[in-house]
Description:
Blueprint: H1 2-6, H2 11-41, H3 44-47, H4 53-61, H5 67-96
Amino acid sequence: xxxxxxxxxxxxxxxxxxxxxxxxxxxxPPLVGQYVLLIKDSSVVSAIGLTDLTRxxxxxxxxxxNGLLVFFLVGVGYxxxxxxxxxxxxxxxxxxxxxxxxx
Length: 103
């Protein structure tokens, strides 16, 4: 930040070109991880217009005799939703160097 100040960058230029890239490198991977936890721990999916998988599972269990299979499939559904986000978080960590302590 001091070098950017000495270079004559304005406050907004320093923020955009120096501070925010460093902050994003640190914050973005855990933020994606938190988003995955939100999906797993709540029915945030219903907030974006999709029916919560667990609720659908309960509705199906009431109509079919094999409830264990239904909830296994619900678990597979959550895995299909969350696993790509986990891979994205890992890739962001590797790409931005946060996984190796490089900031």
